[in-house]
Design goal:
Mean pLDDT: 77
Shape: globular
Order of helices and strands: EEEEEEEEEEEEEEEEEEEEEE
Strand content: over 45%
Distance between the termini: 35 Å
Number of domains: 2
Number of strands: 22
Amino acid sequence: MQVSDVTRYALMPVLALTLAACSVKVTDTGTPPEGGDTGTPPEGGGTGKLKVTSEKLSGTVDGKPFSFAKGLARLESNGEYSLTLVGEGVEITCGDTFPMAPHIVFVVPAQVGEYPYSGGGGRLVNVIFPRPIVDGKGGSTNVLGVKSLIKIERIANGAIEGNVAAISSGRSEHRYDFGGRFRALICTSYSMPTPPTTSTPSVPSTPSEGPIAIKRNGAPAFEVAYSEAIKRNQIYEVRVMNHEPRQKCNTWDAWMMTETPIKYVTIQIPAQEGAFTLAERALEFGDQGASSGWSTKAFTGSGVVRALSQTEIALAISAKDLAGYSLEVSGLLTTTLCP
C-alpha cells in the first residue's frame, strides 16, 4: 500500500502596489501546533512592506536565503492556473509538483493582471513546508502570506511570466519574505506523484451503519454540518465539511482556500452504483485555518455507492489513514449532487 501526505495549493495576494514591469517582496503567518492541528491564527499581521524589484525572485524562506530556480503551472478544472515555484537545488516536474522542500504556490486567472492581498479578499500566496515521513507520520504545514502581490505580465509560448511578493506573519514558526520575477512553464499533462510506502493498518471490512463520522484518536475530528458532490469526468468528488460553504458547488480544485477556517473530507468515488476500493490519494482530510493548515491523502479503505440518481448519491465508506494521525472516516452519507 502506498502512502502520501499532501497539502492543497493556496494563494496570497499582496498590498496594492503600482508596478511597472517590476517585481515584489513581502515579510510575516501562524503555525499549526505539533501533531498537525491548525492553531488559532495570530492577532495582528505582518508589518513589513512589500519590496518591489525587477530582478529574479529571491528573499528568505524559513530563515534561509531563497533564490528562484524553476516554476511550473498546471491548468485547473475551473480554467485557472496553479503555480508552484521552487528555489535552487529543488527539482519539480509536471508529474511531481510536491517536492520535499519549501515551495511557493498560488493560483491565478488565465489572464494578465495584478492580484493584491492584505487581509481582505484577493489572491493568496502560500508557502508549503513539508515534514519528512518519520515512523509512518509526515505531512506539511501551509503558511499563508499576510501581505502579497501577484502580477501576471504574460501568458504565451507555453509559459507564464510575472512577479510575486509575499511576507508571512512575524509570529510564524516558518517565516518568509521574498519578491521578484519568475517564469513558470505550463504543463501540458499532469499526473499525481508516486508517494512513499508504509505499512497498511487494518481497516474495518464493513462501514458503520450510522451517519458518516470523522474521528481522530477515537474522538470526533469535526461535526459534519454540510455535504455535497461534484462530478469530475467518471468520478464524483464527495465533500463533507464542518460548516456550510460561502460558495456551494465550487469547481476550483483548491476550493477549501476560499472557505477558511474549515475542516473537511473529500472522497473520490465511481460515478456508478456498486462496491469500490479507495484509489490512491482518493480521500483527503484537511484542516485549513485562516493563516496556516495541513492535510493528508494517505488513506486506505473501501465503500459502496448504494444509490445514485440525478440529484442525490448515497454511499457507505470505511477508511483509516496511513500517516499516523489516527484518523478514521466511516458511516453512511446521502448528499446532493451539484448541477
